[in-house]
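Bench log, entry 3. Co-assembly request; chain sequences pasted below exactly as received.
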Amino acid sequence: MKPIALMLSHLLILTAPAWAAAPPEVVLQAEAERVEVIAKARAAAVCVFAREGQGGGSGVVISPDGYALSNFHVTKPAGNAIRCGMLDGRVYDAVIVSVDPTGDVALIKLFGRDDFPHAELADSDTVRVGDWAFAVGNPFLLANDLAPTVTYGIVSGVHRYQYPAGTILEYTDCIQTDAAINPGNSGGPLFNAQGQLIGINGRASFEKRGRVNVGVGYAISINQIKNFLGYLKSGRIVDHASLGATVRTDFDGRVVVDQILDDSDAYRRGMRRGDEIVRFAGRSITTVNSFKNVLGILPQGWRVPLTYRRDGQSHDCLVRLAALHHEGELAEAVRSGPTPSPDEGPDEQPEGPQQPLPLPTEPAPSAEMPEIVAQHFEARAGYTNYFFNQSNRQRVWDAFTARGDFSGLTTGWMLTGETPTGEMFTVELADEEGAIRLPEGESLARFDDVLSAATKPGGSGGLLAALHLWRRLLLVGPAEYGEVYYLGTAPLPGRAELVDVLVGNHAGIETTFYFDPSLGDLVAVEMFGQYGADPCEIYFDDIREIEGRHFPHRLEVRHGDIVYAVLEVKEVAFERPVEN
Amino acid sequence: MTNRRKNNVAQTFLSVSFCSLSLWERAGERASSVAQTFLSVTANSLSLWERVVSFFYHTRWERPVSFFSLSLWEKRAVSFFSLSLWERAGERVCAVAERAPHNLRLRLLSLLPALLILFTAVRLPAQVSFAPVVDEVQPQIVKIYGAGGLAGLEAYQSGFLISAEGHILTAWSHVLDATSATVHLHDGRRYEAELVGADPRVDVAVLKIDAENLPYFDLNVAPEATEGTRVLAFCNLFGIATGDEPASVLHGRIAITTPLAARSGAYPTLYRGPVYILDAMTNNPGAAGGALTDTSGRLLGMLGKEVQSTLTGTWLNYALPADRIRPAVHALLSGESADPLPEDRPRAEQAITLADLGLILVPDVLTRTPPFIDAVRPDSPAAVAGLAPDDLVVFLEERLVPSCQMLREELQFIAADQPVSLTVMRGDELVQVTLQVQQD
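Structure output for the full assembly:
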C-alpha cells in the first residue's frame, strides 16, 4: 500500500497546476445537470388561479393531454373552471375532474394542447431521508409572470402521519421536506433530484413565526395518488377506505384490534377484537401510525391482503375496504370543506401546528364558464364532474364491445362443460329465468324477482343472479342496465395491474364489473346479493373467440373464503332471436 | 503566486493525497505518516513551490483524515481534480513521466490502471444523497418526552446518545422538569431515563437509560467546523416522529461562528460563548437537544433551545459547538454536579439571608427564575465583593443554583457568620467572589 500511496501523492503534486486556476469542472457539471433537471420539471408546474377574485395555488401536469394534480383545498375555491398559468407564459383553461377531500387531492384537466410538458411519476416508496428534493410552485402567488418558484432542500422524513387539522383532511404516509413550502405552494410538485414527481405539497408546520415556512413541509406521496388516480379520473367525489376496525397498541407494543364492526369484511374473514395485525396491504404493521399510514393511502372499495395473528397462529386473507365517510359527509366537505374563511390571513396564529396552505380566498363568484370547459363539464349530484364518469364508462364499454358485441342475443344462453373433476355442468340463462345443473344438484330461479335469485344456488352467494346480471350487462350495455357508473381502477386477485371497474345497480342489487384495462375483456363480476354478506364472485378466464366474440371458457365462482365451483366451458350456444 | 493562493494550493494538495490514501487504506492512516510520505516525495520532486506546498502540508495535518472529513471546498477540488485526471489521465501521466526521473516514470506508468479505478471511485455523482449518512446517524438520535404540554410549552425534545451504556445528551429545559423523562430510541424501544445532571451554564443535561451496546457519538472526537461547513440537523421538531419513526433531518450550512447574544423570553441566555449559527430551521419546538453533524455524520454540536437575538429579536437557528459542551459533560459524567446531598443535612440555626449579603434578586416570577442580581445594597458584603446588577449567580459554594428559589433554599444551610462563596456569570466570564458578613 505504501508505495502506491507514495506514487499517488507524487503524481498528484506534479499535476496540480492544471486545476489550480480553473473552475471546478465537476461542480459546473453538477450545476448544469441540476439546471437542466429543474428546467424540465419546472415546465410541468402549474400556477392555479381562481377564475375570479384572489386566491390560488399550484399544480403539476402529469400527462401530455393535460391532466394535472393539485390540492383539493386549492381547487375548491377556484370552482369548476380554473385558470392555469405555465412556464411558457400561457394561461390555459382547465376543468375540475375529481376531488379527494380526505387526501386533499384534486385532478384537473387543462385544455389547449396535446403535448403538455408533464412530470414523470416516481416510486415514492424509494425516497429516502437525506435525498435531495425540490419544490416548484407559486408561493405567495409570486408568479405574476407565470414563472413558478423553485425551492431546494432534502427529504426530512418519510412515511409521516399527520393528524387531521380540525377537518376530514388527513395526511398519511406523507413525505416531509425542508425545501421551503409556503402558502401558495399548495398543490405543487415535489421532485426528486432526477426531476421525477415524488409528491404533491400541501401542508406545513407553522408556529410562532406565522404562516411562513419554518423548515417543515409535507407532500402527499405520489404512490398514494397513483392508488387513487383511476378513481380521480372518474369525475366523482372519491373516498378513502375504512377497515371497519380500530386498532391500538397493547402493552407489548403489538398493534391489536380494538373495536371491529360485525358487518365489516374483516369480521367476516374471521378477524376479532384483540387479534394482532401483522401485515396490511403488503406492509408490516409495527405501530398504530404505520397502520394509519397504510390504510390512509387506499381508496374505498379496494381489496387488499391482511395478515392477523391470534394465539400464535397467522391468518392471511383479502379484505374488502369500506368507505371512510358517508356520502353526505363528503358532499358536505365539498360544499363547505376545509377551506379557510377569508379572514384567516397569513399573520394570524393558527390553532394547530400543522396547517393546510391555502391563501386567503374569496368564494369564486359564478363566473361564466369558457366554452371548452363547458363542453367538458356536467354537474350531477354526488359527482364533481359527471362528464368524466360518462366518458370513462363509455371508454371501458367501447373497449369491451370491440372484443365482442353481445347486443341482440336476447334469447336463451346455454353453457355446458365440465368441472375439474370431470363431471358435467350446464348453465341456462334467459331473460326471465335461469337454471344451473352442477354435480351437487340443480337450481332454478325466476329473474322477475332478482333479489330472491340472489341466494341460489345455496352457498354460492347467488351465482344465478350474478350470471343473470352479467348477461344483462352484455346484452343491454351500461346505458340500459340500470344505474352504472365508472368507479376507477382497483386491484383484482391474481392480477398485477389495476383493472377498470364499473359499478351497476339493477333491481336493488349492486354488482361490480372488472375489465382488463389493456384488452377490454370483462374479467370478473361481484354481485352483492345481501347487505352485510359476502358477494358472489365470478372470475372469467380462458377468454377465447367464438362466433366473432370473445367469451370466457373458464368461470371460477367464489363466495366468502371458499371456491364454490370451477366451470370449464366446452360449448356455448346463443339461440339467435328470430329475425322479423 | 500570492501566499493565499499558495495556501489554497497546499490545502487542496493535501486533501487530494489524503483522499487517495483514504480510498486505498480506508481504515484511516495517521495524517502524520502521510505527511512524512509526502515529504519524502517532495524531497525527490525538486520544484521550489512544491516544497512550499509540502511545508503547508506538514504544518496542518495532525489528525486522521478521510475524504469525507474534508471541507466542501476541498471536496470540490478533489472531485474536480479526479474528474480532470480521469478525463485526461493518459495525457497527464505522460506529461508527468517526461518530467519525472526515470525510475519514477516507470513506477507511475505501472500505476495507471490503479489510477483509473481510483478516479472512477472518487468522482462524485452530480447529486449525492445524504441517505447513507442519515441511516448511520439515526440510531444515535433519541426522542425525549417529559414535562410540559401546557401554555404552549411542548412536552418533548430531542437528544442523542453519547455512550454505549445509554448516556444521552440533551438541552436543559422544562421538559426535564419532571420526576422522570421517557426516551424513545430510533427503532421505537422506550426507556425511562434518569437525570444524571445538568449544567445551565451551557444549557445541557445528561440523561441515562438502562441499556447496553448502543451506537453513540463520541463527544471527544467531535471535529470543529467553520463557516460554510455543510451540516445536517437531526431532531424531533414539532414532535413529528413518534414510536419507531426516525427523527427529522434538515440540511444547511454553518453561517458563522459567533458568541451567542440571545434571550429566552425576557431573560438573557446563560450561555454566551460561541455558537454555530445555521441556515437550517432548527429554531422550532422540540428541536433543542438534537444533533448537528457534518455530512459524514460526525457530531459537530447540539441544537440549542428556542431563543431570540437580543439585538434583532430574530429567532436564532444555532448549535452549541461540541468542544464547548465537552467539559461540562465530562464534569457531569464524572459526577461532580451529581453528588447526592445527604437527606438530613443540617440547616443552619441562624441561616444567612440574601438581605444579610445585600443582594436583591430579580422578581421570582417563574417556576425557575434565573437568579440574576437586580440590585446591590451599597456598602453590603455583596458590594464589597464587587457584585453588580445583571450578574447571574451560578454556583453557591460548589452547588449549582439554577433558580432564585434554589439559591434561597441553599442559603438556609449556611450559617450567618460563615463566609459565602458565590460564582457569578458576568458577560462571558465566570467570576468567583467570597462574601463575608461583618459581625457586630
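Confidence is low (pLDDT under 50) at residues 1-106, 113-126 of chain B. Chain B has ten helices and 21 strands.
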